[in-house]
Amino acid sequence: MIKNTLIKATEAGASELQRFFNGSFKITNKEGINNPVTEADHASEKAIFEVIRKDFPDHFILSEESGEIKMDSEYKWIIDPIDGTVNFANGIPLCCISIGLEHNGTIIMGAVYNPNMNEFFFAEKGKGATLNDKPIQVGNKSAVMDSCLATGFPYTYVNSPNGGLEVFNTLIRRGVALRRIGSAALDLCWVAAGRFDGFYEHILQAWDSAAGFLMVEEAGGKVTDFKGNHYSVYQPQLLATNGKIHDEMLELINNPSEWDSKRFVVSK
Ligand code: IPD
Ligand code: CA
Ligand code: CA
């Protein structure tokens, strides 16, 4: 029942995304620079809420555009009504609906749907991850130099030591394949599907990662903060990898200027 509701809610949000995609819609700006929210984000959120509220009127909801709708419940729905809003607003088809379901503090299910590519990712704790109902697995690269990585940046860049640009600078100068596709939820799903070997971002919110992080774990990957602690969606740092490059990525992120790629065996 709850899995059905999750799938129905994700599809309801995606119908709204598609209704507005490449059409006209109102855009307003949130805090930060170029941090848009569109009419479609609100429409998607409304459609998702309707499905959840019909089946589970007393569940807690945490959603990007409405914040916390607190309820005394063991269940919390963590919703990004459109992840990749800048892509969406520019007609770039890399955007999705992302919904994670938490039970007593543990994320137990996640769904991420990019209707533009007809790709529906789903994960359930202990039961694996799927793309359009087919099981997915992380990739098997064992060195960062051989990997295809992804990252993202917050709307307002935080200039801190070893920040996002320092890590980016090191990787690009060494010639590592590194992408910035503009949707953290898809970045995580693409790690789970073995397209990316790793994804890191310095500041994320719970709704960006709740579903995608479970996807990576259930596809056999590893997700931590930048100290190597098991990932919590309620702190900002996220490193998700295929597992094999995790330790090397941790060293690199914590000290990009000292990264010695030759210390790690390059697989061929
Ligand atoms: C953003 C995207 C982006 C990431 C930002 C997020 P939004 O979410 O996931 O890839 O770099 O940190 O805020 O605003 O499109 O929902
Ligand atoms: Ca987001
Ligand atoms: Ca969003």
The H-and-E topology, N to C, reads as: HEEHEEEHEEEEEEHEHEHEEH
The largest sheet, given as strand count, sense and whether it forms a barrel, is:
8 strands, mixed
How many strand units? 15
Amino-to-carboxy terminus distance: 46 Å
Radius of gyration: 18 Å
- Fill in the CATH topology of the largest domain: Fructose-1,6-Bisphosphatase, Chain A, domain 1
Discrete helix count: 7
Helicity level: 25-40%
> Which ligands, by name, code or SMILES, are bound?
D-MYO-inositol-1-phosphate, calcium ion
What does this entry look like structurally?
The protein is α+β, with helices and mostly antiparallel strands and 268 residues long. The chain folds into 2 domains: 2-135, Fructose-1,6-Bisphosphatase, Chain A, domain 1; 144-258, D-Maltodextrin-Binding Protein, domain 2 (3-Layer(aba) Sandwich). It contains 7 helices and 15 strands. The protein has helices at 2-20, 39-55, 85-89, 164-174, 184-192, 206-218, 246-254; strands at residues 27-29, 36-38, 60-63, 67-69, 75-83, 96-103, 106-114, 119-124, 128-131, 134-135, 148-151, 177-179, 198-201, 222-224, 238-241. The strands form 3 sheets. It has an 8-stranded mixed β-sheet with strand order 4-3-5-6-7-8-9-10, sandwiched between helices. β6 and β7 (106-114) form a beta hairpin. The longest helix is centred in the first third of the chain and has 19 residues, at 2-20. The model has no long low-confidence stretch (mean pLDDT 95). The structure holds D-MYO-inositol-1-phosphate and calcium ion (2 copies). One calcium ion is lined by residues 41, 64, 80, 82-83, 85.
